[in-house]
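Subject: Interface between my chains keeps coming out wrong

I've been trying for a while to get a sensible model of this assembly. When I model each chain on its own everything looks fine, but I need the whole thing in one frame so I can look at the contacts. Pasting all components below, labels as-is. Any help appreciated, I'm running out of ideas.
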Amino acid sequence: MNVVAGGRIMRHSAANALADFKAMYSIRTWSFGWLGRVVSQVIFFALIGRLLDSPEAAAFLLIGNAVMIAALEAMMVVASTTWERRAGTLPLLVAAPAPLALVFIGRSLQWLPSGVATALIALFGAGPLFGVTWSPAEALVVAGIVMVVALTTYCFGLFLAALVLRAMELRNIVSNVAYLTMMAICGVMVPTTFWPGWVWAVAQALPLTHGLRAVRRVDADGIVSSVALDCLLALGVAAVWLGIASVTLHRLAEQGRRDGSIEFAS
Amino acid sequence: MRTFAAAFGFQLTTMRRSIGDFQPLITAPFFTVIFLAITEHAGRTDLAPYAVLAPTLIALWGMALNVAGELIDSERWSGTLEALIATPSSFASIITGRIAAVTTISLLAFVESWLVAWAVFGITVPIEHPLEFGTTLAATAFAMAGTASMMSAVFVLARSARIFQNSLSYPFYVLGGVLVPVALLPGWLEPLSRVVFLSWSADLMRDSLTVGSVPAAALRLLAILGLGMLGQLTGVLLLRRVLVRVRTLGTLTYA
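Reply #2:
Try treating it as a single job with all components included. I did that and got this:
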C-alpha cells in the first residue's frame, strides 16, 4: 500500500472521529462541562501545593497536571477504539483490504486537538494563579511540546486499545489505570527520581515522561536545545509503541479471520 | 424497609457481574500512591491521613454518581421500569436501597488506601478517634446516598444535566475539600463549599484521624446528616415528579 492510499484511509477515519466528537459535544457542553472539569482537575492538584505551604510545589503540580490533560485525552483512544467493535463494524473492517492499524490510527484523532486545547487553557489560564508564567516565545514552544505529548501518548494508547479490543469490558478500567500510573510515575506529581530505579526505568518507556521533561526544561531554563532532544526522545519511544500497536492489531485481525472470534467476542 | 433491603441485595447481586461498576475501587489505590508520593516527597508525613482519606471520598462520590446516572435509564432500557412502578412498593425506596448498596461498598476504598499506605510507603495511619471516625463514615454514606438519589432524579428530569454527569467530579472534589481543606480555598468559595456535604465529612474525618480533640463533632455530624436528609427529600420529591411525567407522557419505558 502506498503512502497516498494510506493517508486517504486515515483521513476518512479521522472524519469519522470528528463526526463522533461533534455528536458527543456541543460548544456549550465542551466549554462548561469538559473544560470546566479538566481545569478543576488541574486546580485540585495544584492546590496541594498550598496544603504543603510550598509555592514551588504548587507550580510543579500545575505544570505537570496541565500537561497531563493532553495525555489524558489522548488515552481516550483506548475507549473509542472499542466503539467499532461495539457498533459491530469491526468484522467489516477486518474483511476490508485496508490494514486495520491505519483505520484505528485515524479513528480517535478527535481527542488530540481537544486535549491540546484543554491542556493549554489550563496551563496558560490557571498557571498565573499559581505563579506559572511564560514569555510569548516560551508559550509557543510549550504549545508545540504539548502537541508532541498528545501525539506520542496517543501512540502508546493505541497499543493498549489494541489489547483491550480482546476484552471490551476492561476498556475504561485499562485507560484509567494507565493514565493514573502515568500521573504517578512520569514526573507529573513528583520528579521521576523519587521512585525506585525499576519504576524510573518503566517511566522512560512512556512518551509523557520525555515530553513533560521538555516543558519543565522550558520553565526552568527557557528555550534550550535539550528541549528538542526530549521531544525527539518522546517521538522515538512513541514510534516503537505505534509499531507494537500495528503488529497487535494485525494479529487481532488475523486471529479473527482464522477462528471467527471477532464477531462473537464482546 | 423490606423493599429497601431487597433493593440493596439486588444491587449487590447485579454488581457481581459488572466489573466496570467497581472502577473507583480499582483506581483508589492509585490515587493513594499519588497523594502519598506528593506528601512524602515534600517530607510531610503528617499529611498521610489526608492522603489516605481523599481516595475514599473520591471513590464514594464516583461510584454513587455513576450508579445515579445509570439507574433509572437502565431500568427503562431493559423494560423493567413499568413492572417496578406497578408494584405497591415505594419506588424511592428501591432507588435509595440500590444507591445505598453502592455507597456501602465504596467505603472499602478506605481499607484499600490504608493498606496501600502501609504496603507501599510503610506508613500506618492510626484512627485516633474511632467513634467519631465510624459515625462520620456512616453519616457520609447516608448523605451520599441521599445526594445520589436526588441526582438520579435530576438526570432523568433534565436530560441536559446528564451530559454534565462526567463533569461533576473534580469541581466537587475541590469544593468538598476532599484533600485540601476548604479553609485553604479562596474565601468567596467557602459559602458554596459549606452546602456540599463532602466538605463537612472531609474536615471531620481528617480531625478524627489526627491527634488532638475533635471540636464540635456532634454539630458537624448533624450538618452532614442534615445535608444528606435534604438531598434525600429532594430526591423523593423529584422522583415523584419523574413518575407523574413519564406516566403522563407515556414514556415510562422504551422497550
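Reply #3:
Confirming on my end. The mean pLDDT of chain B is 88.
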